[in-house]
Amino acid sequence: IKRDRIELEEGEAVPDRLEALENKEKLRDIVYEYRKPTLTKRADIAFEEDQLRKAGIDLTIDDRVSFIFGQTSGEEDHRPPPSDDIRDVRESLPISRYRDEIIQTIKDPRIPVVIVSAATGSGKTTQIPQFVYEAGIASASKRVACTQPRRVAAMSVAMRVDKEAHATNPGLPKLVSGYTIRFEDHTSDDTAIQFLTDGMLIRQMLSDPRLSSFSVLMIDEAHERTLQTDILFAMVKQLLLARNDPASPWYDPFTVVISSATLERLKFRDFFRMKLGDTTFEPPILEVPGRRFPVSIYYSVDPVRGYVPAAVLTILQVHFTQGPGDILVFLTGQEEIEDAQRQLREQHDTAVRNGLECAEEEMAEIIIVPLYASLPRAQQMDVFAPTPRHARKIVLSTNIAETSLTIDNIVYVVDSGYVKMKDFDEDTGAEALQIVPISKASAEQRAGRAGRVAPGHCFRLYTADAFKRELPESTKPEIQRTKLDSPLLMLKSIGIDNPFGTDLDFLDCPAPEQVRLAAGGLLTLGALQVSAVDTAAVMRRTMVTEMGKLVAQLPMEPAMGVALYAGQQHGCLREMLSVVAMLSADWDPFFKPRTKQGQREAATAHEGFVSQEGDHLTLLSLFNAWSSVPDAQRDQWCHDNFVHARAMQRAADIRVQLMNMLGSAEPVSCALGDGTIPAEPVLRALCQGFFMNTASYVGGPYRLVRPPLDVRVHPSSKFARPPPGGKMPGFVLFHQVVKTRCVYIKTVSKIEKAWVEDLLQRYGKIALDMM
Ligand code: CDP
Ligand code: MG
């Protein structure tokens, strides 16, 4: 591979340099080299000795986290801040000056694709769909769709746009801007602007392959390169050729807007360079200059031992020693965020009780707001609510706030340097959720969040050296590091025979091994079947089975869909619906208090739900117990039983939707006359889908069936320890692999090896055949 080396000053904004490279072809091969940062003076935020003593702050790590000034980036902007009027705020966004240009381009029939590239917070997501609507290019019958990789972003932006649209024109119908995410549809016949996750738009193609209800499609946050975004690129390219060619029977022209932060735009342009009619089309790139104040970047002087306590201490240091401005903190997941929230609250209150005072007296109060994927709608409002005068807002977020959501008034950023993502574990080949270092590109984005309203400060909880040596330049696109069974089944169901081979064009192709793995899994599940053996290519051609078609309709991974289907056959669909809904809610329903006393009480309360067979049936018995409580008493019941009410409600909502999708008003149940539920049919049905997620006891750890890796049982499971007087089950089924310092299996149940043996053998044989 040809590699271009560009030397950058430490902290120099990468995108600016890229402009000079417009004509270089292979962007992805460029290696950025950062010069060693020139570290200058220490940042004066670390607590003084006497401050610490006075505050009585009790943290297990270093007494203070010191930072050293490393670099600065961005340029000055002295525009006056807009008034609070929503119309003024809209006008003041950088993108607003380009409104006419954007509309002209979208209206131009010769331009089916346009790339809009602008820094985060410029107004791409909230404004472009509104421009399109206001210009009359979209309506309730030909909507403008705007896809988002994350569901929180889809919801929150849709609500924001609805508010803005009504502020601009009070006569508009309700829900003129709506959203669709998995298991939730908030649109109406009046909706003209529809935000949806990229996955939901792909699903829409199952029922409307031409996407005929849309006139403009905006693929937003394209630089994130999620699996679904990449698939959307491939499908949209195909659809463009069909819908925008006057000779095609599908002729019904539409425009695609690719919107992204400044990264990767040249790659997108190359991808959409194509022959339309007799001419070669190349999408224009609309560049919207961002507006950013300088951000000073500070590195931790020493490596931090635990980034959660280090983040908490850094927040306190900033809060007590620095001037006004809200703080945005990047952590990795809900549990960690809730943990940090508790620590921060406790430490802060202790410090205040001990008489520690803020440098800025009038901001004595702190408002802590968490922000993560499954955050309920009501709480999202808190994130965007303006901070009252006397307070400082502290947002504890996953990387949602990195580019998807912009929170105003952030002046300080605390960056843990980590992100949680699904990845094939290089050592083991198993797919696991793991916490990994962010890329340099991400670190830049995170820092940039501090400079929107005033000169900002970014505190990196890693050393300058770690930044240079340990952070990768950029992240591999998800399509190259994930399981492909779900998209393979979906694309084949839409009628694309060989999607990852010759039939679709991708920005980056997955490895052949990934595709084989997915096909092997689907063949074993029975969602695909071999239709012919192509001897020339030594390849098996496959087709979707009847069951595969049903499973493809369900918005979940095929293994889960197959388990539901098997529930019907094992006479326990009613139970499987509840288990699958609880698993899909993806939210640990058991609340764990922080105090010892609280934990004891919670453990006692939870004991009543625990099944001897393991965690899947525990989820079922919890769901059944909750369902039998009358609506009005459920909140109290959850409180008394240390159960997250919202997690339960979400599972119940999902369950209703699944019933509707399956059209089964009275699902069969395996419950006995006295109401008890036998475990075997339920677990057997689960095994039909999740036979690969099994492990055998090897004394101490469990060994995965495939790949043969030793793992521990996650502490949240019943089988984390041997039952009193009993022994560990010999063979288990689990739902997830999670990797932190060691590899864990999560949501674990006892099963018989015999229940999965056939399937495993079949898989082994298929895998061999496909080699
Ligand atoms: O998409 P891009 O990053 O270019 O910007 P945006 O998300 O459209 O944000 C533009 C403005 O809308 C920012 O000032 C946000 O703070 C604001 N916004 C908001 O107030 N509430 C939301 N739910 C989303 C955005
Ligand atoms: Mg955006």
Automatic annotation (TrEMBL):
Family designation: Belongs to the DEAD box helicase family. DEAH subfamily.
PROSITE patterns: DEAH_ATP_HELICASE, HELICASE_ATP_BIND_1, HELICASE_CTER
Domain of life: Eukaryota
Name by which UniProt lists this protein: RNA helicase
GO molecular function: ATP binding; hydrolase activity; RNA binding; RNA helicase activity
One Gene Ontology term from the biological process aspect of the record: mRNA processing
EC number: 3.6.4.13
Catalysis performed (reactions): ATP + H2O = ADP + phosphate + H(+)
Limits of the Helicase C-terminal domain: 314-495
Keyword annotations from UniProtKB, A to Z: ATP-binding, Helicase, Hydrolase, mRNA processing, mRNA splicing, Nucleotide-binding
Gene3D superfamilies referenced in this protein's UniProt entry, alphabetically: 1.20.120.1080, P-loop containing nucleotide triphosphate hydrolases
Residues passing through the membrane, by range: none
Limits of the Helicase ATP-binding domain: 105-281
Enzyme superclass (EC): hydrolase
Pfam families assigned to the protein according to its UniProt record, in alphabetical order: DEAD, HA2_C, Helicase_C, OB_NTP_bind
Organism this protein belongs to: Carpediemonas membranifera
